[in-house]
Amino acid sequence: MRTEITINASNNPAANYIGWAPVRSQIRLADLSGVTGPVTVRLRNQNSGTGGQITFFSTILRTWGDELPLTLPANGSPVDFFIAGRFGRPSMADRDAAIQVINASDARELSITRLMVRIRKNANNLTIAERDRFLSALARLNDRGMGRFSDFRNIHRSAANDEAHGFAGFLPWHRAFLLDLERELQQIDPSVALPYWRFDQPAPRLFSRDFIGVADFNLGRVQFSPSNPLQFWTTDLAPGVVRPPRFNTSTSRASNERGAVISEIDTLLQGGPNNQYRAFAILEDKPHNHAHTCFGGFISDLDTAAKDPLFFLLHANVDRLWAKWQWFNRRFDITSTNSYSFLGRAGDPRATRIGHNLNDTMWPWNQMTGGFRPNTAPGGNFPNSSTTRAPGPTPAVRDMIDYQGLIDPARRLGFDYDDVP
Amino acid sequence: MDVEQYRKQYEEQLRRAAEQQTSYRDLLDKSKSTPMVLGLEESEGGEQDEMAELIKLIRNKDEDVELRIRTLDAISREAGEHGELFDVALELLQDTNEPAALRRSALSFVQQISFGSTRFAAKRPNYLAVLRSVVDDKDTTLRRRAMGILAREKDEYVQRRLIEGLEHRSKALIPPAKAIQLLGYDIHAEHYPILRQIVERPPSRAAKKEAIRLLAADASSKDLLLEILRDKGESSDVRNISAIAVQSLAPTEFEEIAKQIVMDDSEDNAMRATCINALAHFANPAVLSEDSKLDEHIEQLSATSSSRQLKQATRSYIAKRKE
C-alpha cells in the first residue's frame, strides 16, 4: 500500500513549493495491493523542529494544524485537502519540509512528500547558503551581460516611464516586474526567492562584499569579493556597478541630505484614517523615490536604476510594504476602490492613463507597442510557473491585487513575505 | 507564530506610532496644513497663500539655512500640486550665492520628486540646463552630482566636457577615473582610442581600472587586456578587472587562461578565486568535464588553502560541478 500526494495540481516535484497561502492538494492510494476497504491515514508535518513547516487544512477555511486525518477510498480516487507554510517557519533549503503519511491503523509510513516553504525574506537575515544560491542564480541570469537579464534592464527605462511610474499602477506594475524576474531565477534554481532590502533599517550583511557589494569612497564603484559571482555583473556592455551611498551602509538606515527614509509603520500610516489605496500610493515618493536617491550612480536615475541588482531588493521591500498594508487592512477585494483606485479600463469615464486601470493589461507582457505604449516590448509574455497558473501570459492590473488568492484562489501568484501572513 | 496575535501586536504598534506622530509625521495627515506643522502662523488666505508663504521662507536668504532646508523637505509631498516648487528648487540650485548645503538639498529634492514622474516633463529642459550650469560650479560635490545626472541622461554637453578633460588635464572638472566612469553611461567606438591610451599611460590606477572596464566591449583591445591579465607583475586588482573584461570579450580564451591561473600555485589567491568563480558559474560544463586535473586541483585547494576567499570559491565550484 502506498499513497501519492499532488500539490499545486501537479505530480511534478517542480510544483512542490508553497507559501503562507493555502494551496489545494490531493492524496490517493496509489498502490492498492492489500487494500480491502477505505483506509484512514494521518498526514503529518515531518521534522517539526527544523526547516520549513506545514499546516494542514481539511477545507480552505478551517485550520487543522500539524496533523490531518483523512479517509482514502479503496478505489484510488483522490481526496482533497489544503496545505500552507506555517507563518514564521519558512524553509531554509530546498525541500526541507515534508508531508509524512501514516496508516492510522498500524502507524506504518505510506509516503513522504518533500516540499519547500519558499518565502521572500529580509536580505540582511539570509543564511550564507540562501544568499549564495540567490547570487548564483542572479549572476547566471545576467550571464556577463549576455543573459536574459538584459530584458529586465531594457524594460525599466525612461521610454517606459508612463507604464510603470507616476500613476496608480506603480505598485501592481512593479509587483509583476519582480515576479517575472523571480520566476526566471527559479528556472535556474527553484529554491530561490527574491529577498528584500529593508531600507528603513541598517543592513550591514547585505551591504558587504560577499553580498550586494560595498562602494569605494572615491568613485562609488561597487567592490565584490573574488568569490562573489556578482563581480561579473555586466550591463550595457560594461562590467560593474556604480552606487555611491549618501549614508553609512554599515550602520544606518537609508538616508540622504533630506533625512532618513520613513519607517515601515509611518509608511503604513500614509493610507490615512480610511486606509485607502489612493492615499497609500503616495509611497511612490516616500519612501520609494527617497530610497532610490539615497545613492548616486545607477540606482538614482530611472533610466539606469535596473542596471543595479540592488534595484530588485529595494523594490521587493516596496512591494512588501504594499503587501503588509493589504494584509493589515484587508485590501484584496478588486471590486473596491479601497484596494485600488481605478476600477474600470482605459477609455471609461474618469479612467486614468492606459495600463493603470484595474482591467487594463500591462506592458510589456501584453506585447502592445506604439500609440500610448512604448515602441518595443522586451521580454515577451509573462512566464509560467510550476506552482500556479496566475497571472497568465498577459496580466492585467487586477491580477496583482489578490496575490495570495485569499478571495479568489485562482489568483494566487505564488510568493509571500516572511513578515506578512 | 499565531497570526491573530501578530496582527494585534502590529495594530498596537501602529496605534502608538499614530499617537506619537511628531511634527514631521503630522505631514502625513493631509488634514493638517504644512504651516501648522512647521510652527508657522496659518495664513487666512487658504492653501495658496500658505504655499506662497512657505516659498517666501525658502527663498529668504536671511532665514536660518536649516529651517529653509527643512521647509523644502517638508513640502515635497505638495510638489505634484504645486509645480512652482520644482522651479524654486532649481533657482536655489543655480544660485551660487546660496549655501552649498541648501543647494545640495535642492538638488536631492528635484532628483527625488522627478524620479519616474512625468509631471515635470515640461520642466525637464530647464532642469538639464541648470545642471549644465552647475558643471563648472566651485562646489565639488554639486559638480560631480550634476555631471553624474547629465551623464546618465546621455547629455552631449557633459560628454564633450568629460572627453575634453581626459584629453587636456588642465580642463578636467573631475578626476580622470570619475570622468571615465561617467563616460561609460554612453560609450561610443570613438572613445576607445583614448581609453587605450589611459590604460597604457594611466594618470592613476583607479583611472586604469575604469578604462579597462569600458574596453570590455572593444574587440580591438583584446590583446591589450590579455596582456594585463597574464602579467604577474601587474597589481592584483587591475588584473582582476582585466579578467572580468576578458571573460566578457573572449570567453573561450579566458577559460584557458583561467585554468592556467588556477593550476599555478605561485599565483595570487584573489586572482585564483576570481578565476574559479568564473569557471564555476559561466564555463561550459562539457569543457570542464574533460579536465579532471582541474577538478582535482580545485579539490586539493579546497582542502589545503588558508585563503578564505579561495576556499569559498572552491566550495562553490565543487558544488556547481556536482549539480
Which helices and strands appear, and what pairs or packs with what?
The complex is a heterodimer of chains A (421) and B (323).
Chain A: E1 2-7, E2 17-18, E3 23-31, E4 39-45, E5 54-59, E6 62-65, E7 67-72, E8 79-85, E9 97-103, E10 109-117, H1 128-142, H2 149-155, H3 161-164, H4 170-188, E11 214-215, E12 222-223, E13 234-235, E14 238-239, E15 255-256, E16 259-260, H5 264-269, H6 277-280, H7 285-292, H8 310-329
Parallel strand pairs in A: 2-10
Antiparallel strand pairs in A: 1-3, 3-8, 4-7, 4-9, 5-6, 5-8, 9-10, 11-12, 13-14, 15-16
Helix pairs in contact in A: 1-4, 4-8, 7-8
Chain B: H1 3-19, H2 23-26, H3 34-37, H4 47-59, H5 65-74, H6 84-94, H7 100-114, H8 124-134, H9 140-152, H10 156-167, H11 176-183, H12 192-200, H13 205-214, H14 222-230, H15 236-249, H16 251-263, H17 269-282, H18 285-289, H19 292-304, H20 308-322
Helix pairs in contact in B: 4-5, 5-7, 6-7, 8-9, 10-11, 11-13, 12-13, 13-15, 14-15, 15-16, 15-17, 16-17, 17-20, 19-20
Distinct helical segment count of chain A: 8
Strand content of chain B: under 5%
**Helix vs. strand class of chain B:** mainly alpha
Tertiary shape of chain B: flat
